[in-house]
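Newbie here. three chains, one complex. Structure please?
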Amino acid sequence: MTRYFRETSVALALAALLLVLAGFAPSFYQAQPLLSLAAREAPALVVTCGMALVLICRQIDVSLGSQLSVCSVAAGLLASLHWPLGLILPGSILLGAAFGALNGALVAGLGLPSIVVTLATMVTWREGLRWLRQGVWVELPEGAQWFGLSQTAGQWTLIGVALTLLALLALAMKHLAAGRFVYAVGSDAEAARLAGIGPQRVTFAVFVLAGALTGLAALMNVAQSPQVDPNSGTGLELKTIAAAVVGGVAISGGRGNLWGALAGLVLLACVGPALTHLRVEAYWEKATHGAVILLAVVADGWRGRRLKVS
Amino acid sequence: MKSPLKSILLRHETVLLLILTAEWWFFSAAGRNFGTLDNTFDIIRHSVEIGLLALAMTAVVLTGGIDLSVGSLLGLCAVLLGMFWRDAHLTMRVAAVLTLLAGALAGGFNAALITWLRLPPLIVTLGTFSLFRGLAEALTHGVDTFTGFPEAFLFLGQERWLGLPAQLPIFLLFAAGIWLLIHRTTFGRSFRALGFSAEGARYAGIPVERRLAMVYVLAGLTAALAAIVYTARLGQAKADAGTGYELLAITAVVLGGTSIFGGSGSVAGTLLGVAAIAVLNNGLVHTRQPREVAGMLTGLLLLAALSGSVLLKRLATVRQRWQSPPEATERTSS
Amino acid sequence: MMTPVFEFQTSRSKVQGSGAFHFLGWQFLAPNLNPAPNPNPNEPVTRRRLGAGLRLGLGEFSWLLSPLGPGRRRFGCLTLAGLTLLAGCNQNPDSTANNPSGKALRAGGAKKTTIALLPKSKGNAYFISCTKGAQRAARDLGIDLLFDGPTDPDPARQNEIVENWITLGVDAIAAACENKDGISSALRKARAKGIKVITYDADSLPSAREFFVNQATPQGIGYILMDEAARLCHTQGEFAVITGSLTAANQSEWRSYVLERRAALYPGMKMAALRPCDDLKDKAQSEATSLLAAYPNLKLFLSTTSLGVPGAAEAVKQAGKAGQVKVIGLGLPNENRRYVKEGVTDSVILWKTEDLGYLAVQAACALVQGTLKPGAKTFKAGALGEFQVQGDNIMLGKPFIFNKDNIDQFDF
């Protein structure tokens, strides 16, 4: 119980919410809307994995939302030029990885604080995209939606890809040495360096991976509708950070796992629809969101304090 | 020993001052009506709220923390000010004092979570960032706007007093107060000590929790003061007031040379950072560049300033090593 | 032993003082006009104390010049630096502050009339299409069009841009006002400096502008939305409203007129829910999906934001309820063409946005040149012809309903 306390407590909170919904708003449990919502959140899940990795490595990346917007528009433009999926997919991933590499080079190479670097890159990409596109949407050609599959098949594909990726990364973090290195660097970079793990290399790799995951998520986002909105990544970074933190990933690094981040994301994603189904007025949504985040971290701190005191 | 001139030139604030002067010259030459007194006052008036937030943020960042909720708190305090004045029918002065108290209380809430429960400031303030904005929206049901404030109050934000913008004396007083607090009092020294090493500070006898609480309460109070100035300038109070201000404040603080990890920083640097960003934004309008360019250049400026500092330091270390090799490598040939 | 709470000392070293005094618990060191010789040659030079207050201000910046030596030399250099900075100012003293007619721009020769166009926010396809029309008008008239707007949602940004334009010295400002009261103070200032002000799309307070180019009254917009909704639902049923954000003033105004019309004419219809989508299409889709699930009797989505219509349409399509649940709203034809053709979206209501921009610029230019005066009953706007002027509102016309039959004729 104690080792995975945070993750289990989030899962319990999620279960509690689902129970409340089952009791007071059974309309929540319908197959098609839940499937649609899950497919909508699948790109966010992929980005949350990347963000969780960055957080475990004791860094932070607030530019992932802007990266998603830029990669979405790029993927959309390539699709409208009738490039095949086989080229758009690596293209989007490489573009995301390039952005991640820039962040990583500045953070790992020059030792700049990651919050500042990613804040600067976030603003730069966002404003640059606005300047270039001026808010115009990208129209995708026929058959580009759902990668040409039927709607249900497409939705299940997206959910499947996201979950598979999550499972693979979670296993890698647990069993591969590279995963261990991330935890090591996040816990204590100096100790990791003395142990022969190059913290700079690990940090750089984590940023590149987060960027690549964002590129993939951008393509998953683009595949869901016939148009690409250049503002699609707005607010994504805060959503994913909140999801990861609620799920037990520590901001101070070295702790947490991806399953917890999944639980956190599902919990936060259910807040909006739960309010709709419970007939609560829309203007309570932001306050509820903030309250959930605070409750999660307060519970964490409370337990930590009790342990310290005892 | 390094020459004192070089240590001055390599100092972050000097570089920032040079950048600011360069910006000023460039925009005076390229833009129309940029260097006029009217425009300077405009720059000042537009940047007072962010300046106030940046000053309070300097104290917070010095302790190694961060406060992402100041922008949302500005919105909440603006709404509260409107509610106290319009719905509770209090006089403007009483409403303003109550708003300051409310801001301090909200800051105290942040402080309680951070100090008492030992939670990381980033995540606590991320939560209150949503919470405060959400409360502001809930109080106004999202749509309510408070307008029609008395002329005497609006004077504060819109008119000139003794030839200077009316909010300037408030800002200067506040800046002087913060400067005194950070650079001349034992409190300020304890903030640096906290930022440098919280455990070390504890062993040195500094009451860590109380000092941390102090900075966050100060941040809350400042957000309330900024909300009052903002409402006076705009003439209306809405729930979305101050959106995005926290990021601008952090940008100004970091641009000014304060280390985000805590322990070192200066109020002068923050003021220069605020000035650099404000002049950049204003100058780009006067040279008829679109707003997006201002955002991009601010981001690039931040990166350049930080990278420049680090690269110059590394260059200095390399040169030093090259000029006077360390003793350990000198081996007597035997 | 209790250390004093406040201590006052120099940043470099304590002056070996000629005495100290306490005031309110602060310990001040008295001014010492004969500084003791610096005991430690490696320490930076101790500053001479002219008085506690004076040093406070210069103290933080004197480190810049400490290598140059103390006292007068440093003060002189600071003054020189200050003068240099000031010399950079006032290079272009042609502010319009003293010239109420605003003709200062044309004093130096054939300078073009400059009209500044302010949208509610940049990066919004609606305002992009207004701007296209505005640019066409600028070309027709041979004037300079300055287009800029806020990129961030803070309400104060519009004010800042307007104030910057006042100092820049434009001839006229055409503004779409996000915050009626807030921006009025800035627009009033512009008028006081001789700049002509008109508003378009969303009005400010009437005292702050000369004319309002009205595409349709908020009442007209609200009524037509409700009428169209009632027509499609056969005046019975529940509908859900998707708005951009709860704080958007014009959308809440339209909503209030929708509800007013409903109460007056269609008691059989009911607004089941209201959700904001933060002006994000994807969020509108999620909200619409939840609404479809939570309200099984929902018959129609009404969106007051152009982002909400394709979002709701996609949600309805994915739920397989295309045709059962209708989708209408304010939106641009290009963004909704696909859904309208597929029959998912029934009507998209808007007005000719390019004409709105064209008319706004024409009116602003006419004001500057004096051909449009208050009290006019009609206004001829270049290639578009004559428009009615009701009081101080220049009417563009009625909102237009785009549907399957006519959407192909439009491209914006």
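Moderator note: The beta strands of chain A are 138-139, 227-228. Chain A has one domain: 5-304. Thread marked as resolved.
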